[in-house]
Amino acid sequence: MHPFSYTRATDTRQALHAGRDGGRYIAGGTTLVDLMRETVERPRTLVDISALPLREIMVTRRGGLRIGALVRMSEAAAHRGVRALYPVISQALELSASAQLRNMATIGGNIMQRTRCTYFRDVTAACNKREPGSGCAALHGVNRTHAILGTSDDCVATHPSDVAVAFAALEASVHLMGADGERTVPFADFLLKPGSTPNREQALRPGELITAVELPALPRPLRSGYLKVRDRQSYEFALTSAAVALHIRHGVIREAKVAAGGVGTVPWKLTAVERQLIGRRPSDALWTKAAEHAADGARPLQHNRFKVELLKRTVERQLRIVGGGK
Amino acid sequence: MSIEPPESTVSPSEGYSEGYSEGSSSAPSRRTFIATTAVGSAVVAGGLIGGPSVFGVEPADAATQAPPTSSVSVTVNGERRTVTVDNRTSLLDLLRERMGLTGSKKGCNAGACGACTVLVDGQRVNSCLTLAVRLDGAEVTTIEGLAKGERLHPLQQAFIDQDAFQCGFCTSGQIMSGVGCIKEGHTGSPEEIREFMSGNICRCGCYVKIVRAVEQTAHGK
What we know:
Chain A: This is FAD-binding molybdopterin dehydrogenase. Chain A: It holds the Pfam family CO_deh_flav_C. Chain A: Keywords: Oxidoreductase. The structure holds 2 protein chains of 2 kinds. Chain A has helices at 12-20, 32-37, 73-78, 80-85, 87-94, 99-104, 107-112, 118-121, 163-170, 187-190, 271-277, 284-291, 306-323; strands at residues 5-8, 24-26, 45-48, 57-59, 65-68, 173-178, 181-186, 209-215, 223-229, 240-249, 252-261, 268-269. By secondary structure, chain A is of the alpha+beta class. Among the domains of chain A are: 5-51, Uridine Diphospho-n-acetylenolpyruvylglucosamine Reductase, domain 2, CATH 3.30.43.10; 223-323, Enolase-like, domain 1 (2-Layer Sandwich). The model of chain A has no long low-confidence stretch (mean pLDDT 97). In chain B, α3 (154-161) crosses α6. By secondary structure, chain B is an alpha+beta fold. The chains are: A alpha+beta, B alpha+beta. At the A-B interface, β1, α1, α2, β3 and α6 of A face α1, β4, α4 and α5 of B.
């Protein structure tokens, strides 16, 4: 681990000053400290933001939910409002990491977490994300766990978060604060596909701070849930996952929010699947037909072809779990 | 993965001479350097209100200078300790290398095995991923602080009753995690215990008995 200076911000203004001067924010630190130890991350200054007042979960005036950036994953998962309004979020959180890590890691940090691509973590390997222009060892390497959607010739790494998949499905927005004031970015625009600049992962300006993630009010009743498929039953990243939320009224699907994880360079919103569902009546046949579109546009690699079929089945199963079926 | 024991060994009683200030010493010894940066960081904390320039403090170059350090006051098993740490020091290394509390184990040093689990402010966390420098004012409980005198914590006793370990390397982490699991109320069924204890790996495969030990403690059975 490279040496770094450390400072603790006691209010947001201090944090932003330090961020503007090139300080790196640290919240839960579960990703950052790990990667610093691997010398993948080499911040010269850490700005501890854990004392900032960003730890509230509030119902918004419009009837959505605003989760402060420093709310711990375990706190969000256990929150009564989250559990009642958005089971897909509490489930995604509880299927992530371990209880210890969830006690440390924050919501803001979770969506900032970096890929688990083994080549990214190995400083001796070529990686355009870590070292722009050095190449991508995963492209023709051991790429079983890598992405099939949103990839480029420069990067095929997945975004590892589960709750970000739920955020993408529900069309959340990210509240940001910078030296120039506050702004809100749709979640779909916050995480960036790699393209030719895989080192750029978020639409953050230098020194900008995440203050909250907001979930929009959705028509009720809303059924939702998260399904995660992985190599072991617990404490493992997703091979595939599906976040599904359905608003069904008078036997007809009026709203459908679907996204997939473990398969994309960013959480992958499945608009083609959603389109198949809206206006139709729940049935096994519908789930199968809609899920056929889950891997539209997929570009599998040598070792992850299985993800195409696995993704379709994951989405189909989760549609059935959430929407019921015959 | 390298283990980096902290560089500094300054005890709190001798480390904070008022005589040092940033830049006043042209050829600092390690000790004066540490004192200097300790005073310097106090200035940083105080100076923040004034403006951003205080963050322009250059981090030390590892090749030529001692790495930056900070003073931290942390309560460990009920005893308040003030130590100066290299900023890179993990809580796990602080406990094991500086405080002689070797019950918490270093398995993966990457948050993947749970052997280092301790309670910070009552919450179970991975001490290997916790920077000690961030713990000013925190309360830490390790396996050494669980028993009350000669009386074992009920979960320690349950691990013995259920024969819930073989080699024992993961056990302190399992027990600390189990204490957290019980406190969080995730003991409704063996399945729930298994899921909420999944952050603790046991190479000997004592999982069934570990779950029983947690159940015994949570429900007295």
